[in-house]
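ok so for the tutorial part 2 we go from a plain amino acid sequence to predicted structure tokens. step 1 is just haveing the sequence, like this:
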Amino acid sequence: MKKCRRCSKPATLHITEIRNGEVHELHLCDSCAHVYLSNPQASEADPDIDEFPFKVADDARLDEMDQMVCPNCGITFREFRKLGRLGCPHDYIAFEAELLPLLENIHGDTQHVGKVPKRSPDASQRHYRLIRLRNQLRVAVDEENYEEAARLRDEIQALEAELKESGAPKD
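step 2 — the prediction. this is what the tokens look like for a chain of 171 residues:
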């Protein structure tokens, strides 16, 4: 789901405009769309009006981004934009600042959550939850959020005890 380019709520209105031969796509939530549609002359008179954070990046910034190269596979950001495919897993790190807004706009988030089959065994779901809790614990410790880390540690210990009682392997 795309997000509104003004306020990052879910976009419900998608507008494609052609101005001076250039295509501009606008993705707006209801409230921003109402403001935009109530005064279309203002945007025509002044193309730099508030609506053009809709433009992905100015030309100088885009040229700068296009020169970025992955040190591992050698793909440039320009090649990624042209092909729509990354060259290797390290590209996510090399182009992180440029990819995060793109991923958030396309998918609505930058963290892959995935799905758990409804019929998966209870122990599998608990193992998945245990892995997720350990990752959250690592992040909390890295951010020096020790109260949250302590809460997560206790939750992990309780879940491990639960798994031990059910006879499921720990990892």
